[in-house]
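Recap from last week: sequence in, structure out.
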Amino acid sequence: MKRFALVFLIPFSLMLASCGAQQGKAELDYEQSKQMMIDVLKTDEGKKALMEILADDKAKQHLVIESEVVKTTISESLVSKEGQEMWQKLFADPKFLDNFLTAIAKEQEKMLKHLMNDAEFQKKMLELMQNPEMEEQTLKVLTSQKFKEHLEKSIIETIENPIFQTKILKATEKQDEEKSDEENKKQEDGGQGQEQGGGGQ
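Predicted structure tokens:
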């Protein structure tokens, strides 16, 4: 029951914030609503509830936020000092991070594809990658033990993936067939050459 209440507390608090801005009669003002949302998300139960929301397909469909007031509330909460501390703690939780990335993966892919075709974005990315500080930071990340462990884990997961194994098997079979065809062709060409040589005698 407690978990159920937490799952609906976040959207409910957002709804209250929206109504308060639009009608001026909400019991909770803007700051109280924002602080309540932050306090809830800092708790283990709050994080768990948010992860369940992000992982639930039906919840994704129903939690479509259209109000500009609510969007502004969330945006300002994210950039505030309390909001930044909250998200740092949330993203430090591996389970939350995994669910969060899974939930936004498709949208992220669409956004990246769109940005990669944008000339201004390409220019900015090139400038960023050529920045000495960025190069140094990237090198540190690539040579860190944590990245090596992550890379090793990703490689193992890829190798053990049935789809990847099937693709490798098909590629190997294709190479074997091509090699066999080449050898057969060489033998046929060699046999024809011997026959022609014998006929000339």
